[in-house]
Amino acid sequence: MTNDHSSISPYLLRPLRSLDEVQRDLKKANAVTTQARTIHDRPVAALTARGERIVEDARTTKYTVPTREAGKAGFYYIGKAGALHAGRTVTESRPVAAALRARLLGEA
Q: What are the residue ranges spanned by the domains of the chain?
């Protein structure tokens, strides 16, 4: 038997990470999981942070349907690519203005 490491993966031969590196990576992973990951998740997270709730028994599966603030009738409809619409039904819903969208997402 020889000491030739050519058959062993270089990944297995690399040195172990330090405790600081592990803690840094865990901190990064926790920060990513608390942030919205996709353009669809950003408006959903922003609306739920404002107190809106997701309608679980909505008639549509194409859109995520959060409630709308108490003063207005209807719902928000969030498409898979992050499109934000508002209205009483999916058919009657219209895109929200860019200024309102920016205000909801905290980009104003």
A: 41-105
Collapsing DSSP to helix, strand or coil, 24 comes out as helix
- The token duo for 77 is 């409809």
The tens digit of pLDDT for each residue in 59-90 reads: 888 999 998 876 678 899 999 998 999 999 99
CB distance 54 to 47 below 8 Å = no
Beta pairing, strands 75-78 & 94-95: unpaired
Burial class (CB in 10 A: 0-12, 13-18, 19+), 14: exposed
User: Whole-model pTM above 0.90?
Assistant: no
Query: Tell me: the pLDDT tens digits for 10-59?
Result: 666 666 667 787 777 777 666 554 566 788 888 888 888 888 888 888 88
Beta bridge partners of 84: 78
Instruction: Kindly report the number of other CB atoms within 10 A of residue 83's CB atom.
Output: 16
